Amino acid sequence: MSSTGHMSTIPRNRREAVAEALMRLAPRLPTFEAEATIERALSSAGLRGAVPETAAWLALVAYARHVFTEYDSLLDDGYDRDSARHFVLDDLNAILSEWGCRRTVSDEPEEEEAAP
User: Fold this and answer.
1) Rounded Cα–Cα distance for residues 27 and 66 (Å)
2) What are the phi and psi torsion angles at 23 (to 5°)?
3) More confident call, 74 vs 10
4) Residue spans per domain, the chain
5) In angstroms, what is the C-alpha Rg of the chain?
6) DSSP codes of every residue in 4-44
7) Which of 3, 16, 21, 95 gives the lowest tally of CB atoms within 10 Å of its CB?
8) How far apart are CA 18 and CA 115, in angstroms?
9) What is the pTM of this model?
């Protein structure tokens, strides 16, 4: 990195910053899932302004919820978002744990929007 001021402490770009944060959050995340999570973090309008750690965490949780749980099926069956999230919570935390996450998702509705 360049030694010109603040650039030496900031990763070269947002993708790299999110990828580094993701690897700290989920060190055993398989490459395919990591790429999909990074893409979600970078393409989500709601995560564009978030610090890399927050964007990585929220994208990881959303990706795991949609891909590895019955969340979407529950929504299709007419459950509201909070109910569907409640029913998949154990499965969601199990997959996050498999990926090496020390952090878990709680049943509190606002928990996910909070910074880490």
Assistant:
1) 20
2) -65, -35
3) 74
4) 5-113
5) 15
6) SGGGGGS-SSHHHHHHHHHHHH-TT--HHHHHHHHHHHHH-
7) 3
8) 15
9) 0.82
